Amino acid sequence: MAMKRSKASACVVLSLSCLLVSSSWHAVSTVIFSSSQTNTSVVHHVAIPTFKASTNAVNFSATIAIAHPYEDHWPSYTLPEWATKVESSIEYTSSISKEKQVCLVAIGGTSDSISCKLGFRCNDNDLEASILPGFLPKYTTHMFKNNVYDCEDDSAYFLFVVIHPLVRIKRAIQNDKPIDWDAFKLREGEKNYKRRKNFYLDCPFDTLESLASQGLSQDDSAEKCKQRAESALMGTEHFGNDVYFGYQYHAEGIPGIGRVMTIRAEHFEEDLRSVELELAGKRQETQLSVRIQNNAHKVNADVFSLSEELQSLICNMLCNEIQSYKQILNKSINLSGDQVAQSVEELIASCPTEATSTKCNKPRPDITNKLKKGRGYGKRTSTDSRRGWQVLDFMKKDPTKYLQKAPKESEVCLVHIGKSGGTSLACSLGFNSPGYTDPCPDEVTPGLLPQYTTRRFHLSQYDCFDDSAFYLFLIRNPYDRLISAFNYDNVSRSPKNFERVLSSQEFAKRKKLFLDCPFTTIEKMAQLGLSKAATATDVCKQRAHEAIYGTENYSAQLFCNLQFYLESIPKDAKILALRTEHLSNDWHSAEVTIGGDLNQTTNIAQKNVNDYSEKKEKLISDNSRNIICEKLCNEILVYRTILQHAANLNHEQVQASIDELKESCPVEAVTTSCSEPLPDISDKLKVYRGYYKNEVLDSATGEISIGRSVHVKTP
Fold it and tell me: Comparing C-alpha atoms, which of 476, 642, 482, 625 is closest to residue 549?
């Protein structure tokens, strides 16, 4: 059964066409997700609508239904603080009926302070303290801005905040430019730093005027900078969030059947009253004399000191953005024809050709991939994908250097267990650097292993094919790994620095274990939280046990432990293992196992392994070491299981690792049972590894196993 999208209301002003791309909803078990630019498709075993990609018409929305807001859709991420509501407005988000629920579509460079006025967090305490009167702050429960889509897809309204497109792009360019480049690099990582550097430092684009004069005009500027100027204004290359995520992106990012309301920053009070009227069903007499930043009553004075020639160049390059801007106005149920005409007349004063035309010199960008990666619709692969989770760049490989599809009988997925030297190894296998470390070398490591390892699994980023021939575990002595993981995520080492570079949610998560409890070192956690004579509070003792068992997420590196990775792969899958302590030898044996030649000259880079554990080991008493080993008992049994099932390791190699483990944990290295049962991590797997909605994870047996069974739920 299919449900057609409702047509938009009649269009007004200058014969602007309301060209909406039709979509169909399919309640079927298999849906093909296709693109007009490629012939590739991905099969999703969930009931979702097809997504018709770009046409030259204005596609107001690509209709894709995602059942949950941001953190449900991306379980490995936390919602940025600016997209949450202040404590004083928490009451606004409760008991709001679906018939009134509003999602704010906050487009960068329009009017940042409006989100504060609606009860969302901001840096201006005065604005937080003066939330608008009326229904709108109460009914606006979620936000969509840039690559954070936290809307309920069945929200009653999607509230756009817009401003003259030239004003928006000018402010977006200023917003995206870092004030302190060193602090930005530390906070946002190497990748985002290079994006901004390519635009602001490598090219002379400090302002909109410099972009136009040195990037769009016919002068002697470098060709690469001209290309960057054009692609930035077209929204086809990512240099900064506010510039990149513009009107077209946000318009196509909401559900196709969503009802649109709009507040024009130039006519804020007038439009706010019309929105309140729509929500309340009657005119509100509330005084709405409020202070709004970025209000643009005098647009010309703000941006159009540009020469007529430069202004014309910018308007021409922004033509498709202008069409999206007009489309948003036309689709807004709270704006009258006269109000839309008023904004178009204001647009004519600066961009007369683009304001009155429905076509542009340049074709409308196909932003299919941009929507998938930013707004989020799932991974485009030729096999299973997990609930539409986003795949980060460090999980990918350069297709010009490495195979994207390996022979099925030899295909490998890297299982990258944290604090085992995996970042360096991933570089040797051809994966991208995560951004906060040095870039990976350009050289391609010889052999089949880098070519046949096409996918990667790290933390909650499960990007493996479920029918891969091998799952390549990078493993390390569990005792050493625990110490390294504990110290790596330990915010007590430098609280102010961690608070500055981590998201507020991530810092709060770690703070519970490392600052709110007296666990500034592994020695203290063992004695005060894990021992029989522990003196910490009951809450802190519970947290210590949850952290070491991996049953509560206070530290990503502790939480995603060996049990999590082993139970995440398919049932009875074939395993290869690279032991951190014997990396080169195991690399060679894995190479031979998948059909390659033994090449003892291949040198595998290895660093970032013993970053804290070796020097901290001296500070751990024998008593604390014994306590930690006892609590790690199940993890050690899992470790031994991985070793024993690794196709590339022989008995002598397995025994060598167990003998090494005896030096730290002599009892647990040889025992066959533990005093505590193996944790049931079913819920953890569902949330962080992810399964299809029609897949059911079989119940835990209490025994260590290679993978967990999954069965398909009958309709």
Answer: 482
CA-based nearest residue to 270, from 290, 299, 298, 244: 290
Task: Report the SS3 class of residue 195.
Answer: helix
| Token reading at 303 | 């941006």
Task: Give me 624's structure tokens.
Answer: 């604390």
Q: What is the spatial distance between Cα 313 and Cα 248, in angstroms, rounded to a whole number? A: 19
Mean local confidence (pLDDT), 359-387: 68
Q: What is the pLDDT of residues 173-204, one digit of tens each?
A: 999 999 988 888 877 777 888 899 999 999 98
Percent of the chain with pLDDT over 90: 51
Per-residue pLDDT tens over the stretch 65-103:
333 467 666 665 677 888 888 755 544 445 567 788 899
Q: Strand 140-145 vs strand 102-106: parallel, antiparallel, or unpaired?
A: parallel
Q: Which residues contact 422 (CB under 8 A, 6 or more apart)?
A: 414, 416, 458, 474
Instruction: For residue 262, give the nearest of 114, 140, 161 by alpha carbon.
Output: 161
Amino acid type, 377: Y
Site of tokens 């060598």: 656
Nearest to 320 by CA among 56, 110, 14: 56
12-35 as b/e, with b when 16 or more CB fall inside 10 Å?
bbbebebbbbebebbeeeebebbb
Write down the residue that tokens 């409890």 correspond to: 517
From residue 184, alpha-carbon distances to 107, 176, 499, 713 in Å are 22, 11, 14, 47
Q: Confirm if 208 and 306 have CB atoms less than 8 A apart.
A: yes
Q: What pTM, to 2 d.p., does this model score?
A: 0.52
Interatomic CA distance for residues 417 and 300, integer angstroms: 56
- How many Å apart are CA 274 and CA 268, to the nearest integer? 10
Question: Using CA atoms, how far apart are residues 461 and 475, in angstroms rounded to an integer?
Answer: 18
* Top-confidence residue, 296 or 111: 111
Q: How far apart are CA 275 and CA 295, in angstroms?
A: 17
How would you label 421-436 residue by residue, b for 16+ Cβ within 10 Å and e otherwise? bbbbbbbbbbbbbbbe
Q: Give 501's pLDDT tier (boundaries 50, 70, 90).
A: confident
Domain segments of the chain as ranges: 31-169+241-369, 389-483+559-613+634-677, 490-554
CA atoms 426, 430, 431, 435: torsion sign: positive
User: Closest Cα partner for 466 from 691, 250, 132?
Assistant: 691
Cα Rg for the chain, rounded, in angstroms?
28
**DSSP one-letter code for 265:** G
What's at 517, amino acid-wise?
A: C
